[in-house]
Design a protein that fits this description.
Elements (H helix, E strand, L loop, with lengths): L31 E5 L3 E4 H15 L4 E4 L5 E5 L12 E9 L4 E6 L3 H12 L6 E5 L2
Antiparallel strand pairs: 1-6, 1-7, 2-5, 3-6, 4-5
Helix pairs in contact: 1-2
Length: about 140
């Protein structure tokens, strides 16, 4: 599962996801890509599940680039715990995805295969996405 090796701080603020993506908004590596339409946090397990679904359908042909990385620790308090006593412990790692951000890029396969493979990956993500291709 994806997570950073070290971070400066153990816990992070929740934050809000405003605006559109300034970085990773165009295809840089592959011919086809999966672009986010909604803002949301995507957790490491969801990224990994999408990557596995994508590579399984492609059957070891072509190349896949993951353009997001979960670097935000999300803390959670245990169930049935009273209010107060500080913030909970980090449970999982997430990535804040803005609309317009490229999540995956693929190359080395034909368009119909890429379209289906990226659709299968998009079903594992909690956000609406769009298939894009390089012109």
């Amino acid at each position: 599962m994806l997570q950073p090796t070290r971070t400066k701080y153990r816990k992070a603020h929740k934050g809000r996801i405003h605006g559109t993506a300034a970085r990773a908004a165009t295809l840089n590596y592959g011919q086809y890509g999966l672009k986010a339409i909604q803002p949301d946090r995507v957790i490491g397990k969801q990224i990994e599940a999408a990557r596995v679904a994508l590579t399984r359908y492609m059957k070891r042909t072509g190349k896949v680039w993951t353009r997001v990385f979960p670097n935000i620790p999300v803390s959670k308090k245990p169930t049935e715990v009273r209010m107060g006593k500080g913030k909970g412990n980090p449970e999982y790692w997430a990535c804040r995805v803005k609309p317009g951000r490229i999540i995956f890029e693929v190359d080395g396969i034909d368009e119909p295969t890429a379209r289906i493979a990226l659709y299968k990956a998009s079903t594992k993500l909690p956000i609406k996405t769009k298939f894009i291709k390089r012109f």
